[in-house]
Protein backbone atom coordinates (compact mmCIF):
# COMPACT_ATOMS: atom_id res chain seq x y z
CA UNK A 1 0.00 0.00 0.00
CA UNK A 2 1.06 3.46 -0.74
CA UNK A 3 0.85 5.99 2.03
CA UNK A 4 -0.45 9.47 1.24
CA UNK A 5 2.75 11.04 2.54
CA UNK A 6 5.28 9.28 0.41
CA UNK A 7 5.19 6.93 -2.50
CA UNK A 8 7.29 3.91 -2.71
CA UNK A 9 10.24 3.28 -0.47
CA UNK A 10 11.56 6.90 -0.16
CA UNK A 11 10.09 8.58 2.91
CA UNK A 12 10.66 12.28 3.54
CA UNK A 13 12.81 12.98 6.53
CA UNK A 14 12.42 16.06 8.69
CA UNK A 15 15.24 18.54 8.45
CA UNK A 16 16.58 19.30 11.92
CA UNK A 17 19.07 22.05 11.10
CA UNK A 18 18.91 25.61 12.44
CA UNK A 19 18.89 28.40 9.90
CA UNK A 20 21.50 30.80 11.33
CA UNK A 21 21.32 33.51 8.66
CA UNK A 22 18.66 35.60 10.50
CA UNK A 23 20.67 35.37 13.71
CA UNK A 24 23.79 36.64 11.94
CA UNK A 25 21.81 39.58 10.55
CA UNK A 26 20.53 40.52 14.00
CA UNK A 27 24.01 40.18 15.49
CA UNK A 28 25.53 42.50 12.86
CA UNK A 29 22.83 45.13 13.43
CA UNK A 30 23.46 45.02 17.18
CA UNK A 31 27.20 45.25 16.61
CA UNK A 32 26.75 48.38 14.49
CA UNK A 33 24.47 49.95 17.10
CA UNK A 34 26.99 49.32 19.90
CA UNK A 35 29.87 50.62 17.78
CA UNK A 36 28.01 53.87 17.19
CA UNK A 37 26.75 54.41 20.75
CA UNK A 38 29.92 53.42 22.66
CA UNK A 39 31.87 56.63 21.85
CA UNK A 40 28.85 58.72 22.83
CA UNK A 41 28.86 57.29 26.34
CA UNK A 42 32.31 58.59 27.25
CA UNK A 43 31.71 61.90 28.96
CA UNK A 44 33.73 63.01 31.92
CA UNK A 45 31.76 65.73 33.71
CA UNK A 46 28.03 65.79 34.46
CA UNK A 47 26.68 69.17 33.46
CA UNK A 48 23.05 70.31 33.31
CA UNK A 49 23.07 71.91 29.88
CA UNK A 50 20.72 74.78 29.11
CA UNK A 51 17.84 73.89 26.81
CA UNK A 52 17.80 75.40 23.33
CA UNK A 53 16.34 74.30 20.01
CA UNK A 54 19.72 74.45 18.25
CA UNK A 55 20.58 72.33 15.24
CA UNK A 56 23.24 69.66 15.74
CA UNK A 57 26.71 70.17 14.31
CA UNK A 58 27.76 68.38 11.15
CA UNK A 59 29.65 65.19 11.96
CA UNK A 60 33.37 65.46 11.32
CA UNK A 61 36.35 63.17 11.67
CA UNK A 62 37.92 65.48 14.28
CA UNK A 63 37.09 64.92 17.91
CA UNK A 64 35.94 68.26 19.32
CA UNK A 65 37.85 70.10 22.02
CA UNK A 66 35.32 70.54 24.85
CA UNK A 67 35.75 72.98 27.74
CA UNK A 68 33.31 72.02 30.52
CA UNK A 69 32.26 74.29 33.38
CA UNK A 70 30.60 72.62 36.38
CA UNK A 71 28.22 74.10 38.97
CA UNK A 72 31.09 75.46 41.08
CA UNK A 73 32.69 77.20 38.08
CA UNK A 74 35.61 74.76 37.72
CA UNK A 75 37.02 74.22 34.22
CA UNK A 76 37.63 70.79 32.66
CA UNK A 77 39.15 69.86 29.30
CA UNK A 78 38.45 66.62 27.46
CA UNK A 79 42.12 66.28 26.46
CA UNK A 80 45.20 65.32 28.41
CA UNK A 81 45.52 63.20 31.50
CA UNK A 82 42.85 63.19 34.21
CA UNK A 83 39.95 64.58 32.22
CA UNK A 84 37.85 64.54 35.39
CA UNK A 85 40.25 66.84 37.29
CA UNK A 86 39.78 70.63 37.23
CA UNK A 87 42.38 72.63 35.28
CA UNK A 88 43.53 76.20 35.75
CA UNK A 89 43.34 78.96 33.15
CA UNK A 90 47.00 78.70 32.07
CA UNK A 91 46.63 74.97 31.45
CA UNK A 92 43.52 75.59 29.33
CA UNK A 93 45.38 78.02 27.07
CA UNK A 94 48.42 75.73 26.84
CA UNK A 95 46.53 72.51 26.01
CA UNK A 96 43.98 74.14 23.71
CA UNK A 97 46.67 75.98 21.72
CA UNK A 98 48.56 72.69 21.26
CA UNK A 99 45.43 71.00 19.87
CA UNK A 100 44.56 73.93 17.60
CA UNK A 101 48.15 74.20 16.29
CA UNK A 102 48.09 70.49 15.47
CA UNK A 103 44.75 70.78 13.60
CA UNK A 104 43.15 74.16 12.98
CA UNK A 105 39.88 72.48 11.92
CA UNK A 106 39.26 71.01 15.39
CA UNK A 107 35.75 71.98 16.57
CA UNK A 108 35.84 73.91 19.87
CA UNK A 109 32.84 73.67 22.20
CA UNK A 110 31.95 75.11 25.60
CA UNK A 111 29.71 72.94 27.78
CA UNK A 112 28.51 74.77 30.88
CA UNK A 113 26.04 73.99 33.62
CA UNK A 114 22.96 76.20 33.35
CA UNK A 115 23.48 77.52 36.90
CA UNK A 116 27.00 78.83 36.25
CA UNK A 117 27.29 82.64 36.14
CA UNK A 118 27.53 83.91 32.58
CA UNK A 119 30.83 85.68 33.30
CA UNK A 120 32.53 82.37 34.08
CA UNK A 121 31.40 80.93 30.72
CA UNK A 122 32.62 84.03 28.87
CA UNK A 123 35.98 83.79 30.64
CA UNK A 124 36.31 80.21 29.38
CA UNK A 125 35.47 81.28 25.83
CA UNK A 126 38.06 84.08 26.02
CA UNK A 127 40.69 81.57 27.16
CA UNK A 128 39.90 79.41 24.13
CA UNK A 129 40.20 82.46 21.85
CA UNK A 130 43.60 83.24 23.40
CA UNK A 131 44.60 79.67 22.51
CA UNK A 132 43.78 80.37 18.85
CA UNK A 133 40.18 79.18 18.46
CA UNK A 134 38.35 81.28 15.88
CA UNK A 135 34.95 79.57 16.10
CA UNK A 136 33.56 78.49 19.46
CA UNK A 137 30.27 76.64 19.81
CA UNK A 138 28.11 76.29 22.91
CA UNK A 139 26.69 72.87 23.69
CA UNK A 140 23.00 72.78 24.67
CA UNK A 141 20.42 70.12 25.49
CA UNK A 142 17.69 70.13 22.83
CA UNK A 143 15.55 67.49 24.61
CA UNK A 144 13.46 69.93 26.69
CA UNK A 145 13.37 72.90 24.31
CA UNK A 146 9.57 73.21 24.62
CA UNK A 147 9.96 74.81 28.06
CA UNK A 148 8.16 78.18 28.37
CA UNK A 149 10.42 81.22 28.15
CA UNK A 150 10.80 83.70 30.99
CA UNK A 151 10.03 87.31 30.20
Q: Could you characterize the architecture of this molecule?
A:
- The chain is an alpha/beta fold and 151 residues long.
- The protein has a domain at 45-142: Nucleotidyltransferase, domain 5, CATH 3.30.420.
- The protein has helices at residues 21-37, 89-102, 118-130; strands spanning 65-69, 75-77, 108-112, 136-138.
- A four-stranded mixed sheet has the order 2-1-3-4, covered by helices on one side.
- Helix 3 links the parallel strand 3 and strand 4 (136-138).
- Helix 2 crosses helix 3.
- The radius of gyration is 27 Å and the shape is elongated.
Summed up, what is this model?
By secondary structure, the chain is α/β, with parallel strands linked by helices. The chain is 29% helix and 11% strand. The protein has a domain at 45-142: Nucleotidyltransferase, domain 5.
Would you spell out the secondary-structure blueprint of this structure?
Elements (H helix, E strand, L loop, with lengths): L20 H17 L27 E5 L5 E3 L11 H14 L5 E5 L5 H13 L5 E3 L13
Helix pairs in contact: 2-3
Q: In the CATH classification, which architecture of the domain at 45-142 applies?
A: 2-Layer Sandwich
Strand content: 5-15%
Silhouette: elongated
Largest sheet: spatial strand order? 2-1-3-4
| Record field, number of beta strands | 4
Oligomer: single chain
Helix content: 25-40%
Kindly provide the radius of gyration, computed on alpha-carbon positions and rounded to a whole number of angstroms: 27 Å
What are its keywords?
alpha/beta; Nucleotidyltransferase, domain 5; four-stranded mixed β-sheet; 3 helices; 29% helix; disordered C terminus
Amino acid sequence: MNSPMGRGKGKRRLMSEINVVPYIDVMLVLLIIFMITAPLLTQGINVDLPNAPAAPLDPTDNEPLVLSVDREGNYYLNIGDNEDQPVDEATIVERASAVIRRNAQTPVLVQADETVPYGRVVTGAVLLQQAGATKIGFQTDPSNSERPRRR
